[in-house]
Automatic annotation (TrEMBL):
Xref: InterPro entries: Cellulose_deg_GH3, Fn3-like, GH, Glyco_hydro_3_C, Glyco_hydro_3_C_sf, Glyco_hydro_3_N, Glyco_hydro_3_N_sf, Ig-like_fold
Protein species of origin: Aspergillus sclerotialis
GO molecular function, one term: beta-glucosidase activity
SMART domains named in the record: Fn3_like
Lineage: Eukaryota, Fungi, Dikarya, Ascomycota, Pezizomycotina
Keyword Transmembrane: no
Similarity comment text for this entry: Belongs to the glycosyl hydrolase 3 family.
One Pfam family matching this protein: Glyco_hydro_3
Domain Fibronectin type III-like: 729-799
Catalytic activity: Hydrolysis of terminal, non-reducing beta-D-glucosyl residues with release of beta-D-glucose
Protein name per Swiss-Prot or TrEMBL: beta-glucosidase
Superkingdom to which the source organism belongs: Eukaryota
Keyword Glycoprotein (UniProt): yes
Keywords recorded for this protein, A-Z: Carbohydrate metabolism, Cellulose degradation, Glycoprotein, Glycosidase, Hydrolase, Polysaccharide degradation, Signal
Length: 846
């Protein structure tokens, strides 16, 4: 998996070339929270502490909720799903998917939508939000839950994840990042789900294991989690799958060593429903709370059996689990609670997930605690505006010939395809949105929410078209060939809608067990487009899908003059789309993955047929997923990663690369940093933790070694709007780090609004981690320039539309000279232009 060349390079490197983690700010602003948490924990009895860690799976919400401790007047915590809003609630918003947020490439919008999510959870009284999602990362394009996350690119995902955590928590709710880690497909994720609920063959005896080498783990799948931890993420949900044949929720390597040790995670780890497989092992492995509390796979057996609960009390009493570990578990939860200030005026839980009755049981399964459970508070505020903005700013314009878009008062429009109209069962008519009926604006599963309304494209288009006295005809039945033929023949512009959908593995749609079976449009979508295009010289295709779809059957047809990938935009779907179709918003979305010409172009896929009773997913492609694979193998994608058109055009000039002078920092050895001893949490329960390798709460760094976040280079360029309308450009920076890394890796992006004829300076900050690779021997990040590598720099408007190239020379080479300035034509994937050097201009750090 790892190319031998890089190991060779390494062996010749002196130890001094590696930087060591310095002593940092301790747990920073968490100190006060930890102090309060410790005070809280130390007044609890053993059974109260155990109770605290063991969720009440049969409670009012879906997520980790614990019980009230009346003795000390603590009313308990409640968490709820998920990434698109408050799951199962009423009078809440239905947000755009995580994938759409990534499609915006807009840090502010990612932050804003997650702020809304946090605010709505808080107003409904939920302490934590099971979101944002960065697992799956997107190993395979057909992966069922990819749309809940952001992008298979770790840098884009990391930035988005960090902003999402910040947004959620600034609103006051705890962000519970999920799913940790290597949860990359739905097939075989859960035994009972697969063997009994779905009753699919062959039977499995354990969830699948994702087997990934250490370097790939760090540079790809673990990468975004650093950003979440850096931004103070309060909780993490561990996943269903195994890693190297150890369950994620009891993996000492994943939880203790990596998450809490290396990354310095300060909050708590919760299980998913049914992802806990042991009592003692999960406690020692680093899990802090059992989400549903119960042993049964969905946590709602009502039997009350638990790996923890009374079992954990026994395990502490018989010495299998040290009491300080139990204290640590509770302390971590309460630290997040205090860190977010939830001890002050946090609203009480005032809804019941999936139940709209005003009165009901607090514990429905046990039929206990009859009370007013639902205040039906409307918490939507003006959030629709942001959702609409995410919709319009995420739409990716893939093709626009013959000046088709924006629409210019067309005399007659045809709207064609089931995906243009409403679901005949209503927007919430399919359980957890598991169907493909009407327009697709949300994927299915626990990441879904109830739509307060859903503006379908047809209604929005009709509304808008009325202003221009445009005639609008439509056909929503994909098989109504005669009617489709008629209306497309008459119309000036034919807006043709196709869709695909996917979701979570516990539900199946048209034989798709969460993961998509194929990458094509559903419901004969390709045939619909081809038929419309045969009779309509301006066929605009709009795609609603949870990831890339193959479009080879029609993309090159001359009458298919425009194509928009709209993703899964949530409740304001039609409005956001109309903004772009009519040019009220100039499209600025860019693809967060590649669009292949065929399925094989991706090099990776879902494992659909079990290769044993415990299916093994060997990620032997290492770092090479999505565009990294495509680039490495010189495959010509249909549309490359980062691609997206605008109604205007942009020019780049002047690439300037400056090294940022290093700030000297005291350092200690990595092992010292990781092995700080665990101070006793409560005086009476302190035990010797020496056999517990990473007593993490005390790890002195948050987000990993602080030096990883130092800005080491600044890259600047100037972008000019050369067209006639204002527009936003996403300027992108890619690096070739050599040493067995992909030919190009995204390491910077900036979205800027530029008026016609004007130009803007764009600056990318390269942090030390961005120019480093993971050294598996030293268990450290190392800057490739210190390995003798010249870093190649590419700046442009996509991963292939490179406008400017430069070089950051290896350490020791021409110390006072750095970089180059070589504007190139927008030649795609041409070889590296020889560089001319210029003097470095040092910039101060701040
Ligand atoms: C602590 O919080 C303050 C504001 O709340 C912030 O300005 C400061 O940077 C934080 N310090 C650390 C170490 O995170
Ligand atoms: C533990 O929680 C249950 C409810 O989930 C409650 O009935 C019981 O009293 C609690 N035990 C203690 C010791 O607080
Ligand atoms: C698969 O597992 C289910 C549930 O345990 C069982 O009912 C079924 O008989 C099994 N099928 C086979 C072929 O073993
Ligand atoms: C899995 O095994 C590989 C190969 O031994 C190793 O590099 C990697 O660190 C392991 N991952 C985990 C999570 O233990
Ligand atoms: C203890 O755990 C076992 C599974 O290991 C379970 O069968 C049992 O019901 C648990 N006991 C309680 C009281 O929950
Ligand atoms: C301690 O109790 C736990 C929970 O019942 C059990 O799983 C474990 O095997 C026990 N350990 C010993 C050494 O008895
Ligand atoms: C094109 O339109 C004409 C007139 O309505 C119709 O007869 C014909 O079948 C249509 N062609 C297709 C391919 O739908
Ligand atoms: C792809 O899957 C969808 C949904 O199951 C189905 O409608 C469609 O016919 C499939 N496409 C192909 C080419 O098999
Ligand atoms: C394009 O559409 C026109 C109708 O406007 C039709 O006459 C022509 O045959 C179509 N071209 C193709 C290649 O289908």
């Amino acid at each position: 998996m790892i190319l031998p060349t890089w190991l060779l390079l390494l062996s010749g490197t002196a130890l001094a070339d590696y930087y060591n983690p310095p002593i940092s700010d301790g747990y920073g602003n968490w100190s006060a929270a930890y102090e309060k948490a410790r005070h809280f924990v130390c007044q609890l009895t053993l059974t109260e502490k155990v109770n605290f860690t063991t969720g009440v799976g049969t409670g009012q919400t879906v997520g980790y909720s614990n019980s009230i401790i009346p003795r000390i007047g603590f009313r308990g915590l409640a968490g709820d799903d998920g990434p698109t809003g408050v799951r199962g609630a009423d009078y809440t918003s239905a947000l755009a998917s995580g994938m759409n947020l990534a499609m915006t490439w807009d840090r502010q919008l990612i932050y804003e939508q997650n702020y809304i999510n946090g605010a709505e959870h808080k107003a409904k009284g939920a302490n934590s939000v099971a979101a944002p999602v960065v697992g799956p990362l997107g190993h395979a394009p057909a992966g069922g839950r990819n749309f809940e996350g952001f992008s298979p690119d770790p840098y884009l995902s990391g930035i988005a994840f960090g902003e999402a955590v910040r947004g959620t928590q600034d609103a006051g709710a705890i962000a519970e990042g999920k799913h940790y880690l290597l949860y990359e497909q739905e097939h075989f994720r859960e035994i009972v789900e697969w063997n009994v609920w779905l009753a699919e063959e062959p039977n499995i005896t354990d969830p699948y294991s994702s087997n990934v080498d250490d370097r790939t783990l760090h540079e790809l799948y673990l990468w975004p989690w650093y950003d979440g931890v850096k931004n103070h993420m309060g909780a993490v949900m561990c996943s269903y799958n195994q890693a190297n044949n150890t369950h994620a929720c009891e993996s000492d390597r994943l939880l203790n060593q990596l998450l809490k040790g290396e990354l310095g995670f300060q909050g708590y780890v919760s299980s998913d429903d049914g992802s806990q497989f042991s009592g003692v092992a999960s406690a020692l492995g680093g899990m802090d709370v059992t989400g549903p509390g119960e042993t049964s796979p969905n946590g709602i057996s009502g039997l009350g059996e638990s790996y923890w609960g009374p079992n954990l009390t026994l395990a502490v009493l018989n010495g299998s689990v040290p009491e300080w570990r139990l204290d640590d578990m509770v302390t971590r939860v309460m630290a997040s609670y205090y860190y977010l200030g939830q001890d002050k005026d946090y609203p009480e839980l005032n809804f019941a997930s999936g139940n709209f009755d005003t009165y009901g049981y607090e514990y429905p399964e046990a039929e206990l605690g009859w009370r007013k459970i639902n205040l039906h508070l409307d918490v939507r505020d003006n959030h629709a505006e942001t959702i609409r903005k995410v919709g319009s700013n995420s739409a990716v314009l893939l093709k626009n010939s013959k000046n088709t878009l924006p629409l210019k008062k067309p005399k007659q429009i045809a709207v064609i395809g089931e995906d243009a109209g409403p679901n005949k069962y209503g927007p919430n008519g399919c359980s957890d949105r598991a169907c493909n009926e009407g327009t697709m604006a949300m994927g299915w599963g626990s990441g879904s929410t109830n739509f307060p309304y859903l503006v379908d494209p047809l209604s929005a288009i009709q509304q808008r078209a009325l202003k221009d006295r445009t005639v609008v005809q439509y056909v929503l039945d994909n098989w109504a060939k005669d009617q489709i033929g008629d209306v497309s023949w008459q119309a000036e512009v034919c807006l043709t809608f196709v869709s695909a959908i996917s979701g979570e593995g516990y539900l199946e749609v048209d034989n798709n067990f969460g993961d998509r079976n194929n990458l094509t449009a559903w419901k004969d979508g390709d045939a619909v487009v081809k038929q419309v295009a045969a009779n309509c010289s301006e066929t605009v295709v709009v795609i609603h899908a949870p990831g890339p779809i193959l479009m080879e059957e029609w993309i090159d047809l001359p009458n298919v003059t425009a194509v928009i990938f709209a993703g899964l935009p949530g409740q304001e779907s039609g409005n956001g789309l109309v903004d772009v179709l009519y040019g009220d918003v100039n499209p600025s979305g860019k693809l967060p993955w590649s669009v292949g010409r065929k399925r094989e172009d991706y090099g990776t896929d879902v494992l659909y047929k079990a290769n044993g009773p415990v299916p093994q997913l060997d990620f032997s492609e290492g770092l090479f997923i999505d565009y990294r694979y495509v680039d490495k193998n010189n495959i010509k994608p249909r549309f490359e990663f980062g691609f997206g058109l605008s109604y205007t055009t942009f020019d780049y000039h002047g690439l300037r690369i400056n090294a940022v002078p290093a700030v000297p920092t005291a350092s200690i050895s990595p092992s010292q940093a990781m092995r700080t001893t665990n101070p006793s949490i409560c005086p009476h329960t302190s035990l010797n933790p020496s056999d517990y390798t990473f007593p993490t709460r005390c790890t002195p760094t948050r987000g990993g070694d602080p030096k990883l976040w130092d800005v080491v280079y600044r890259v600047r360029t100037t972008v000019t709007n050369t067209g006639s309308v204002a527009g936003q450009e996403v300027a992108q920076l890619y690096l070739d780090l050599g040493n067995g890394t992909p030919p190009r890796q995204l390491r910077g992006f900036q979205k800027v609004m530029i008026q016609p004829g004007e130009h803007k300076e764009v600056e990318f900050e390269l942090r030390r981690r961005d120019v480093s690779i993971w050294d598996v021997v030293k268990q450290q990040w190392v800057e490739v320039t210190k390995l003798g590598t010249d870093i190649k720099v590419f700046v442009g408007s996509s991963s292939r539309d490179v406008k400017l190239r430069g070089v950051i020379p290896a350490t020791g080479k021409a110390p006072s000279m750095i970089s180059s300035m070589v504007p190139s034509s927008s030649s795609r994937m041409s070889s590296v232009v020889p560089s001319s050097r210029f003097k470095v201009t040092p910039t101060p750090t701040h």
